[in-house]
Specification:
Helices cover 52% and strands 10% of the residues. By secondary structure, it is mainly α. The protein starts with a helix and ends with a strand.
């Protein structure tokens, strides 16, 4: 077996391990760089049906590995679990970005409900309503005015005929 065939076999095995497990498998920090270098080497070599097919398959395997690992990383972020080390820098960056995004998306009850909000008037007496953003509004009496900042929340109240725009 040549070095290229060995590398293709290693790539295929990594793909199989990722498919079979819900946990991130340990891969070298240079995994993606090495795999891309391998694919470029195969593509730039003597073109035969076998090498063309091998390059296409390797590229597909690498894409599938990355997509599967991205899904697993999102699960790790959702559960507050640390990804195993060593990990490629691309994955570390994705993990950290997802963590930051998730921490920003948490509800903050200390924020005012409607900074720069739009005023809506209640069409009827209503009990407390949980809005799509997770915030609560109400109870409100008929014709009471309320400020709602989130567009999705405003549209929910208007479309469900709970409130109307002023």
């Amino acid at each position: 077996m040549s070095g290229e065939e060995l590398y293709y076999e290693m790539l295929w095995q990594a793909h199989q391990k990722e498919k079979r497990s819900n946990e991130l498998q340990l891969i070298p920090k240079t995994f993606y760089d090495d795999a891309q270098a391998y694919i470029k080497k195969v593509e730039s070599g003597t073109r035969t049906d076998k090498t063309t097919q091998q390059a296409e398959n390797a590229s597909r395997l690498l894409s599938e590995i990355f997509e599967r690992r991205k899904q697993k990383i999102m699960v790790y972020v959702a559960y507050g679990k640390q990804i195993p080390s060593p990990a490629p820098q691309t994955e570390m960056d994705l993990y950290e970005s997802a963590q930051k995004l998730l921490s920003k998306a948490r509800l903050d009850s200390t924020k005012p409900d409607a900074p720069n909000g739009y005023k809506l008037r209640a069409n009827q007496d209503i009990p407390e309503v949980i809005l799509p953003s997770g915030r609560k509004v109400g109870p409100m009496e008929k014709d009471q005015v309320v400020e709602i900042g989130e567009k999705e929340d405003r549209m929910f109240l208007i479309n469900n005929k709970i409130c109307r725009e002023l």
